[in-house]
Amino acid sequence: MPDVIATYAFVPERGTAPEEAARWIAEEETTGTWTGISTRVEYVRRLDGEVLEVTPRGNGYVTRIRYPAEIFEPGNVSQYLSVVAGNLFGLKKLESVRLLDAEFPESLIPFHGPRFGIRGIRGLIGTLDRPHVGTIIKPKVGLSPKDTAAVASQAALGGVDLIKDDETLTDQAFCPLRERVSLVMEALEEVKEETGRQVLYAVNITTRADRIVARAEEAVNLGATMVMIDVITAGFTALQALAESPKIRVPIHVHRTMHAAMTRSPVHGIAMRLFARLVRWLGGDQLHTGTVSGKMSHDRDEVTGDNRILTGPCLGLKRVFPVASGGLQPGNVHRELEVLGNDIVLQAGGGIHGHPDGTAAGARAMRQAVDAWMEGISLEEYAREHHELERALKKWGVIHG
Ligand code: RUB
Fold first, then answer.
1. SS3 of residue 253 by DSSP
2. CA of 114 relative to ligand 1 center, distance in Å
3. If you ran DSSP here, which 8-state letter would residue 206 be given?
């Protein structure tokens, strides 16, 4: 049976040989512990982890460790994480350790993946190949349901494809979910009647595990055309529960707030790569993977590699729409697209609602930047005949490589 292979970058504790440090990982996560134990009887030894190789890299080492497939419970991703991303991070034998990736055999991926994926979402919106433009309602929190709907309406009129709640907005007293969804959907229906355009609304249904599916169902019953989950804070199995619920037949937008506590350090933690794999397996339709020129810390090669995990071949599972978000404005659009390609959702909060002429103008400016890209015209040249874009570029400038 093919096994699980996990790759770690690490720096051993002073005085510990790299091979020994790697062996500590393999043993801690399988059949061993800090000392020899009489209960590690012979038949258990087939479940030992195995250090396949240790090679120097930079100031440390990279190791590949084989975990026998048999130690994993098929379909239980919480348990998968407890093995490949478990106690090892705290071992004193390692000064630092970062899980770079883990590859699992087909027998451990018994998941149906996204229901919609890139093609399904394009079908809902009616686009063939242009990048999608999304917005996050800003301010993150504080607006009443009525004002949220008014902002959504302006963004939709300006031309965005997707409107979403921010990661900290759920069902607070100042903006109850029921009222917010009803009013936003009413506003988007009006825009649809006026313009013929379908604009999706991703409602943040993140809540405790035993209530999340019911909350998502409630949002869908109120007309939500997408649901959103903060997958790191809610848990991967909460995403799985949503995706597997027969009543939630809308795409799932996956936000990754808190990920950087694990993914940001180049020497310690967990690379985004594994989370991208899990989200695709478990049924996310869109996933934040970062920008290459925005406000959040990023590594260009990691972002493009993560997007390939979402969009490359994977056991016939549908392709997940990558979402680039954080500090984007019309002046970043060409930089993002030349690196990330057209199968991308470009999301702008401040870069739309901060436009000098308001939200609708900001949405128009983002769309104009995308249109310029599709027509092969530079932002500066397109801005000469597109007032909203011109105003945005004057405020924020054009971001080159
Ligand atoms: C964007 C925003 C998003 C972050 C998340 O707002 O608040 O939650 O982009 O980051 P703005 P990531 O457009 O005003 O910067 O996508 O990297 O997880």
1. strand
2. 22
3. -
Between CA 69 and CA 62 the distance in angstroms is 22
pLDDT in tens, 38-94: 999 999 999 999 999 999 999 999 999 999 999 999 999 999 999 999 999 999 999
- Check which CATH number belongs to the domain holding 319 and give it: 3.20.20.110
Per-residue DSSP letter, 319: P
**Ligand 1 atom 9 nearest Cα:** 326
pTM for the model: 0.98
Distance 111 CA to ligand 1 centre (A): 28
Helix (H) or strand (E) segment spanning residue 132: strand 132-136
* Residue 65 within any structural domain of the chain: yes
Asked if 318 is an active-site residue, the reply is no
| 42 and 141 part of one domain | no
State the total domains in the chain: 2
* Catalytic residue of the set 93, 164, 255, 259: 255
Q: Which residues of 360-380 are buried (b: 16+ CB within 10 A; e: fewer)?
A: bbbbbbbbbbbbbbeeeeebe
- Expressed in angstroms and rounded, the spacing between residue 373 Cα and the centre of ligand 1 is 22
Distance CA 366, CA 348 (A): 8
Q: How many CB atoms lie within 10 A of CB 390?
A: 18
Domain with 208 in it: 117-396
